[in-house]
Amino acid sequence: MPIWVNQSGVIPVLDGQLCMVTSRSGRRWVFPKGQIDPGHTPSEAALVEAWEEAGLTGILDPEPIGNYVYEKFERSYHVLVYRMWVTKALAVWPESELREREWMTVPEALDRVEEHGLREVLRRAFSNGTTDRITLARA
Q1: Cα 67 → chain centroid
Q2: CB atoms within 10 A of CB 127
Q3: Global confidence as pTM
Q4: DSSP alpha helices (H): ranges in the chain?
Q5: Which of 56, 98, 103, 111 has its CA at a distance of 20 to 30 angstroms from the CA of residue 50?
Q6: Looking at the domain assignment, is residue 138 inside a domain?
């Protein structure tokens, strides 16, 4: 019986583009996500992951845009996904030595996402041009 791990993550949006970062191994492009630590809500955890993994701060949509499940190391991970409207992107952040950060279009992000469930969340959330809803200045 697999162990379930709850995670949350963000799809950062700025100026009509999405931000992805490399995984710790540097072999894949991912959106910031991680485990929900005790005492944190899923949305608080998502904001922490955006800061630690990508150096981004911003405003989350009030509700998650979707969720997906993936398997790794005999564990099942359930990820709650939020859209984050980026207000600031810093040049140096906690994991900047470990990860690259890149801004891209929705179609480019869809080409890079490996998890089927996350690809479906991305398709549903951005099928109607919602990357242009808000444009905030990049810091």
Answers
A1: 11
A2: 9
A3: 0.88
A4: 42-54, 106-112, 116-125
A5: 111
A6: no
Q: What is the pLDDT of residue 131?
A: 56
Rounded mean pLDDT, 89-109: 96
Sole residue written with tokens 């989350």:
60
- Condensed to tens digits (0 to 9), the pLDDT of residues 41-64 reads 999 999 999 999 999 999 999 999
* 3-class secondary structure per residue, 100-115: CEEEECHHHHHHHCCC
Query: What's the confidence (pLDDT) of residue 129?
Result: 58
CA 99 to chain centroid: 14
How high is the pLDDT of residue 11? Answer: 97
* Domain coverage including residue 61: 3-132
Query: What's the pLDDT at 25?
Result: 85
Question: Is residue 139 situated within a structural domain?
Answer: no
Short-list 63, 76, 71, CA closest to 121: 63
Which two structure tokens, joined as six digits, stand for 10? 């963000």
CATH number for 71? 3.90.79.10
SS3 track for 9-32: EEEEEECCEEEEEECCCCCCEECC
Give the C-alpha separation, 74 to 82, whole Å.
Answer: 25
